[in-house]
Amino acid sequence: MELMRIFSHASIILSISVTSAAHESNGINKVKFFDADLRVLGAFANIDAKFMIRLGNGDLEKMRDPNNAQDWVKQNVQPST
């Protein structure tokens, strides 16, 4: 498996040990998040993989401005690293 898709609205949030084990044992090198849930992003903080976080439609227009995009990352991604 090369790609793991993560939905944070799932009823069970995977622990760090589970996500690490899944990454290592299955060769996962890409992770796609469907929102920026800090609980879920934090579980992947020390995982060596490429990450993609989907933005909601309401955020797309704002992200055209690089300053807004950088602020969004600071608020939604960096706290989990």
UniProtKB/TrEMBL annotation:
<dbReference type="InterPro" id="IPR044965">
    <property type="entry name" value="Glyco_hydro_17_plant"/>
</dbReference>
<keyword id="KW-0732">Signal</keyword>
<dbReference type="InterPro" id="IPR017853">
    <property type="entry name" value="GH"/>
</dbReference>
<dbReference type="GO" id="GO:0004553">
    <property type="term" value="F:hydrolase activity, hydrolyzing O-glycosyl compounds"/>
</dbReference>
<protein>
    <recommendedName>
        <fullName>Glucan endo-1,3-beta-D-glucosidase</fullName>
    </recommendedName>
</protein>
<feature type="signal peptide">
    <location>
        <begin position="1"/>
        <end position="22"/>
    </location>
</feature>
<dbReference type="GO" id="GO:0005975">
    <property type="term" value="P:carbohydrate metabolic process"/>
</dbReference>
